[in-house]
Amino acid sequence: MNIEHLVTMANDIGNFFTSEAGDAAAPKEVATHITKFWDPRMRSQIIGHSKSGGEGLSPVALTAVGLLVPPVQRD
Question: How many CB atoms lie within 10 A of CB 71?
C-alpha cells in the first residue's frame, strides 16, 4: 500500500482518538486500533516508515506506531 495513504490514515485515527480519549491516552488507543484492524503488511510498512524518520506522521501517530509490535512474518 502507498505509504502516504498509510500516514494519512494513521494521522486521521490519531486525530479521532485525541478528540475521544485525550492526548495522554490517544497513542495507546491508536496502536490498539491499528493492531486490530490493519493488515500485517500495512503494520510492517508503517513501522518501517517510522524507523526511517516517520515523515508526515503526527506526534500522536508516531508515538502510537512506536508502541506497535512488528507482525510475525509467515512463510
Answer: 15
Distances (CA, A) of 21 to 39, 50, 59: 24, 23, 15
Q: What's the whole-model pTM score?
A: 0.90
What is the grid cell recorded at 44?
510492517
Domain ranges of the chain: 3-67
Dump pLDDT digits (tens) for 44-69. 999 999 999 999 999 999 999 999 98
DSSP string, 4-38: HHHHHHHHHHHHHHHHHH-TTTHHHHHHHHHHHHS
